[in-house]
Amino acid sequence: MSASAVTERVRRLEETGVLRGYHAEVSLPLVGLPILAFVRLRYPHGNYKPLHDLVDKRAEILEAHHVTGDDCFVLKVAARSMPHLEEVVGAISGLGGVSTSIVYSTTLTGRVVDGQGSTNGGGASA
After folding, report:
1. Do 95 and 41 meet the contact criterion of CB atoms below 8 Å apart?
2. Does residue 13 have a pLDDT over 50?
3. Residue 72 domain-assigned?
4. Is residue 89 part of a domain?
5. How many domains does the chain have?
6. What domain range includes position 70?
7. Which of 113, 115, 69 shows the shortest CA–CA distance to 123?
8. What is the 3-state secondary structure (H, E, C) of the chain?
9. Model confidence at 125, in pLDDT bands (50, 70, 90)?
10. Does some domain include residue 118?
11. Averaged over 44-51, what is the pLDDT?
């Protein structure tokens, strides 16, 4: 494809919302955040403002997902040390019951999905 055709195709994908943005993949250990954890939160009520405020305030919370099942939210958290993780989890636990799982290693990150729902490679790491 020519550069102008690619530019036009990308523009259309952005306008339709298929492409929502661009990002750089940062190595968390190399920026001082070697500990990765998933914190499951049981949130006792439907007022989500305190949770949204905490997520906005704490940059260590990388992702927040409202989920089905016994837990209400799953939060992906990066920390510089175990005491730092304890501090972040302590702040989250002020909202409800928590259960924390620390990541030993990551098998797959950043899988790319094509327009048909199938994958195009992975981002596997050890």
Report:
1. yes
2. yes
3. yes
4. yes
5. 1
6. 29-102
7. 113
8. CCHHHHHHHHHHHHHCCCCCCCCCCCCCHHHCCCEEEEEEEECCCCCCHHHHHHHHHCCCEEEEEECCCCCCEEEEEEECCHHHHHHHHHHHHCCCEEEEEECCCCCECCCCECCCCCECCCCECC
9. very low
10. no
11. 90
Is pLDDT above 70 for 120?
no
Question: Residue 100's pLDDT is what?
Answer: 98
Q: What is the pLDDT of residue 126?
A: 43
- The CATH number that applies at residue 95 is 3.30.70.920
Could you tell me if residue 49 is inside a domain? Answer: yes
pLDDT of residue 21: 85
pLDDT digits (tens, 9 = 90+) for 73-108: 999 999 999 999 999 999 999 999 999 999 999 999
